[in-house]
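[09:14] KT: can someone run the structure on this one? pasting the chain below
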Amino acid sequence: MSFVEKPPLSIEPPDDIPVYFATLIAGLELIVADEVEQRLPAAQVLGALRGKLVFASPEPPGAALELGTIEHLFAWAGQIEALPTSREGLEVIERELEALDLGPALSLFHRLHGEPEQPGFRITAQRAGNHEYNSVEIAAAAGAGVNRRYGWAVDLTQYDYDVRVYVTDDSALVGLRLSEEALHRRARVRHAAASLNPTVAHAMCRLAAHALGRASAERATPAGRPSGPDGPPHLAEEASAFPAAVVGQVFVDPMCGAGTILIERASLGEVGLLVGGELHEQPLAAARENLAAASLSRPAGRENLAAACGSPAASAEGPADPGLSAALVRWDARRLPLRRGSVDAVACNLPWGRRVGSHRANRHLYPGFMRELGRVLRPGGVAVLLTQEKRLIARLMAKSRKLTLVEQYPLSLSGMYPTIYVLTRTAD
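[09:31] RB: done, structure tokens below
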């Protein structure tokens, strides 16, 4: 049975615990659910739609805004079921919004942002499916219902409350936005070409942590015994064991662009050395500024980089402190100046052959890069890769004797459909 349901959700929200839903990059639902369960221990995941996760949590609402894999956070207001797709659906939306009690959602909003004296509001509507009405008409109908119930003034620009209505086929999900802006707007002050969404980067770093935790658990479990009561440990259990297992870990992004993955990995906590590399100076300059803005940039000691780099002449810039160090290196990802078996984890947003690179160039880049992964990763090491070059990755994995594909997550990202691949380095 799929974790992601078709709307409407078959859930019964608890009466005494605040209920939220988060929007996210479609394809990350399982990863977001795991982060919710790990970072909000008292939370309960209630269900998932494509690109959305619903959960209840008694913790302060600000805690949910700290999740690294979500785009927006909403207070749950309710669902509309059996919604007509004909023009009659607009009357149903207006009537249901007028009857909807926004009190619990407003309470969460006021805890975060205070209560406005003379609130203004807007409706933001999104629609998927075949309907005889459009998103603008949905917003107008919903706005009429809310205005009739609460008397708030409509203000499309200086609003206090943003009520969201997501219509999918014959149902609608309604919520009140709690996040002031999209939560992926963090970490960067300068962009490089095709910079990666930080929520996807965060998910990739979590996947690397889980895979390393799983490998550690498997090494610690006698052969033939399950590593948990019913088999392999839950992702959250793996992640909780991760930091203690990787003191001194070397984490590398061989094509780091603006440094997004390095910054998101640093946000997860303990790591020995972060290394990012690029072939050209322009993206390295962007990464340098972003690392500095994220307080990861004090003058780096070359002795830190020497722990992983085999070439003492490697050009390195970046941060270093007793608990966390990072370095930026100008290199060719097909010829990494790193010692054999010196890297614990790699995460990388590869060129997709669209905005960066080309399919022809990728046919030359990817084979050399994959060979280098097999060389620099230690046995049991992990690589998490994002790309849209599905056929090329499949051909290379079929030929590889050192790398094994263990998981993949197809995404929908800005009108494109890349996949996150999780690979492990096999034993020599």
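[09:33] KT: thanks! The first strand starts at residue 19 and ends at 23.
[09:34] RB: yep, looked fine to me
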